[in-house]
Amino acid sequence: MATAYVAMYIAAAPHQAANVRRLGFGDEDLVGGPSRWLVDAIVAYGDTDAAVRRVQEHLDAGATTSACRS
User: Sign of the CA dihedral 32, 37, 41, 47?
Assistant: First the structure.
């Protein structure tokens, strides 16, 4: 499900492909569908505890929630 969602999101919002390229992902991660590496890097999945840990890793690395606010 995560792979399909990331593929749809990148196709529907081409500026996101530019964003992930700036993060170090290349054509091999985007062409023909997102690579497993890309999906694993940006999707928090698993049970609730696993997802919370993954989101915390993103926050600890400097991610912010300000981009999600309207």
Answer: positive
Give me 60's structure tokens: 């600890």
* Calpha distance 48→22 (Å, rounded): 29
Residue type for position 51: A
64: tokens are: 């912010």
The model's pTM:
0.73
Residue-wise pLDDT for 37-50, tens only, equals 999 988 888 999 99
CA distance 8 to 2: 10
Distance CA 19, CA 55 (A): 19
